[in-house]
Amino acid sequence: MREAIEDVWDNLVDEIEERGFDHRLVIPGTLAIGVAAIVVVATLFSLGASLVFDEPSSSSNVLDLSFNEAVFMPRAEECIDEGNGQDSPEFAIGYEPSLAMDSAGNLFITAHKDLRWGGTGTPLGPILGGPFDFWYACEEGEETTWDYWASWLWKSNDGGLTWGAGDNFEPTPGNHLMANYLAGGSECLGDEGDIAVDGEDVVYYLDTTLEDNWWHKFLDGGNTYEGGICDRMNTMAADDRPWVAAQGDGIVHYLGNSGASPPECSGDVGRYWYYHSENGGDSFSQCYAMPGGWSTIAAEADGTYVYVAQESSDGGSGNVIVRISDDYGRGTGPSPSDGTWQEPVSVGPRNGNCPEGYPVIETNEVGTVAVIWADCPDGGTGPWDMRIALSYDRGINWSEWEITPFERGMNMYPFVSISDNDVISVAFYGLDFDQNGSEDGYTAGKEWFLYAGALQAPQANDSWDFSIADPAPLHTVTSYEESNGDTHAL
Predict the structure, then answer these.
(1) Which CATH class is domain 2-484?
(2) Which of 121, 131, 382, 474 has the fewest Cβ atoms within 10 angstroms?
(3) What pTM did the predictor assign?
(4) pLDDT digits 0-9 by tens, 465-488
């Protein structure tokens, strides 16, 4: 099996070099980061036709996908705690992961850690309740569910065959009083992170602490940590899930999700704030709001275009809009200014406020831009829809249509990726209400799976042939989730 995968990886590298595939990758979140997610990523994001795609037939642009066996993210031996309540304590856990890949095919992953460091108490005990104690990580006798403190960066230099910690992200046993910035990036106590790679293959990892954000930079496929440990971004507090893009030589874009105006920019109002750097994240512009709801960002690695997809508002309906800059997003600071950002363009409707269905945008190097989002006109646990908007000319003209995968079901966290030869791949967490001949809806015992599909250069009203990427379910709906309409397990 290993030899077969290594042969495929060698072919993949040759394929990448010959065909110039785009390598910016994104995946939806999960409770356990496992093989399914990694292999699907390798499949979805056009790593090479020899690895995952059969060529389309003459009458169809549907590409057949194949998937390898799932591989879970490793946990360091000193951080394994058989009593931590996990089903598989030898593996790391997390959700809302981020994945990126550089031009050499090196892969990088982080995941949401939720700030629950080990230990029965907390230094904030008097405030949060519970006993006063230090935070611990990988310490015998203490809880270690969230190891490595809370900031994780895994890398793979062989196409996902094996995984390990990025440079300076080895496990850090002990308590936070023992921790210091000389011990490594894993001591930066992060929460939710995102990863991007610029045109020079510099890897940027942003991890938010709610109080501020930490930047980490890597070279050489994640094997060399660049710059200072735990570099502060000095932005707003109370920042939620960050979104990062990078391009060119050190141009970095960051969307901060604060839901409020920071004090230094009180003249503008917006849930999302855009920060721009042209020196590899050493300093950032400030004060540019992008009014609207949930947002994501994408940029050409070697071109000048950068795109933001947004909900037009935080409400239950409206439109999905796209903001475009053709000059690296420049001109937004230091004072409030639109700079090179054009007026937003509406690309499709929103007919409901899904729990996890925000618009996700992606692009490639030849001008293709795609936005995908979930719609839930029948409520959070009613049948969902899925829609895509597509432009082949850098956002001048758009086509938009429905690509709902089920007659009745839910499609959570839809994500999209585009190769430079316009293979457009879609992945999502799906729950088919009709599974096992069922005629009811969101009920206990039904299973969530990871689905994926790919089309070559799709046109309006084309349909993706979605299939289950891993036969092992991601999650099974519980009685509590059914009775409370709770869909947040994923």
Answers:
(1) mainly beta
(2) 131
(3) 0.86
(4) 999 999 999 999 999 999 999 998
